[in-house]
């Protein structure tokens, strides 16, 4: 009788349940490796721990990447994006589910990059400050677009046509992103070498990383840092829509042609040419630029 009980359906059910729970636990642990208590930036020049570092907005011969650059070693389970910041945010969102690739790469304690610009900085900042980054996802995605592609969605038509690409719905989000980009640009020039001219990426990261959250949460608190460049950009964008300027998009050429009396801020120009491959700028006195 005891032997019949030992092999009975009740025991079989219990054994099956224990095995199932143990397997589920192992599978969960495999997909969700322990998350570090904190994350940090390491300068590119440091001795980078190969098993605990992710590279953003550039490539590396051996380390994993979250980057939109050609030749990147991004994990297969992370959705691509136009900017490296977008890819980092996609990885952070994917890591909350059953995505092993995203969990592994986002559980590395250190992040690094080989240069400083808006997209590179934001990629590092988002990786380190995850919860706040996801709360402000749309503004950060659009900041990276403005920094890398010089395209700001500064009209309702642009928001309607392209806002979903950066997950922004309201025009005020685009203007907030512009303010933050102008703050980053202005203070970089004020305190450090001009963009792309120096080798002080680590110093710039050390200065901006702890200061950015306050400005992200309350851009008006840093009004003095962004208002001058911001005013130039918005004024130039509005000027291009006026009678003294022209914006033409010949069909089928991928070319945008802009004319203005004097050169304007590149954010103003390129915000009128979203989606075009080549931009021809024409100014008075036979002055031309092609990008």
Number of distinct beta strands: 8
Low-confidence stretches at least 5 residues in length (pLDDT < 50)? 18-30
The description of the largest β-sheet is: 4 strands, parallel
Please trace the helix and strand order, writing H or E for each element.
Answer: HHEEEHHEHHHHHHHHEEHEE
**Global morphology:** globular
Distance between the termini: 88 Å
**How big is the Rg?**
24 Å
Can you give the helix content as a percent range? 40-55%
How are strands sequenced across the largest beta sheet? 1-4-2-3
Hey, roughly how much beta strand do the residues contain? 5-15%
Tell me the structural class: alpha/beta
Q: What's the helix count? A: 13
Nearest-integer average pLDDT? 90
Report what the structure shows.
- The chain has 291 residues and is of the alpha/beta class.
- The protein has helices at residues 2-6, 9-31, 84-94, 100-106, 118-128, 130-135, 137-149, 156-162, 171-191, 201-208, 212-217, 223-240, 266-270; strands at residues 40-41, 53-56, 65-66, 110-112, 246-248, 255-260, 278-283, 287-290.
- Strands 1-4-2-3 form a four-stranded parallel sheet. The protein has a four-stranded mixed sheet with strand order 5-6-7-8, with no helix packed on it.
- Helix 3 packs antiparallel against helix 7 (137-149).
- The termini are far apart.
- The relative contact order is 0.09.
């Amino acid at each position: 009788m005891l032997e019949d009980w030992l092999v009975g359906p009740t025991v079989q059910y219990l054994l099956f349940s224990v095995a199932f729970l143990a397997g589920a636990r192992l599978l969960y642990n495999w997909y969700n490796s322990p998350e570090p208590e904190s994350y940090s930036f390491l300068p590119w020049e440091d001795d980078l721990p190969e098993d605990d570092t992710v590279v953003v907005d550039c490539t590396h011969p051996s380390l994993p990447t979250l980057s939109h650059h050609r030749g990147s070693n991004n994990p297969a389970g992370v959705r691509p994006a136009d900017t490296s910041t977008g890819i980092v945010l996609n990885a952070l969102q994917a890591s909350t589910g059953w995505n092993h690739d995203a969990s592994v790469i986002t559980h590395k304690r250190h992040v690094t990059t080989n240069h400083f610009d808006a997209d590179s900085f934001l990629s590092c900042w988002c990786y380190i400050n995850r919860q706040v980054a996801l709360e402000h996802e749309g503004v950060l995605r659009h900041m990276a677009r403005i920094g890398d592609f010089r395209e700001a969605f500064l009209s309702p038509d642009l928001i309607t046509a392209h806002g979903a690409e950066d997950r922004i719905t309201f025009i005020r989000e685009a203007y907030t992103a512009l303010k933050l980009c102008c703050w980053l640009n202005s203070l970089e020039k004020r305190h450090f070498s001009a963009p792309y001219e120096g080798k002080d990426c680590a110093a710039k990261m050390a200065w901006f990383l702890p200061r950015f959250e306050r400005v992200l949460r309350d851009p008006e608190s840093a009004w003095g840092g962004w208002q001058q460049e911001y005013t130039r950009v918005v004024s130039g964008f509005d000027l291009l829509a006026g009678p003294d300027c022209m914006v033409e998009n010949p069909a089928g050429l991928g070319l945008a042609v802009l004319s203005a009396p004097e050169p304007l801020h590149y954010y103003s120009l390129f915000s009128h040419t979203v989606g075009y491959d080549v931009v021809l700028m024409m100014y008075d006195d036979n002055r031309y630029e092609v990008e």
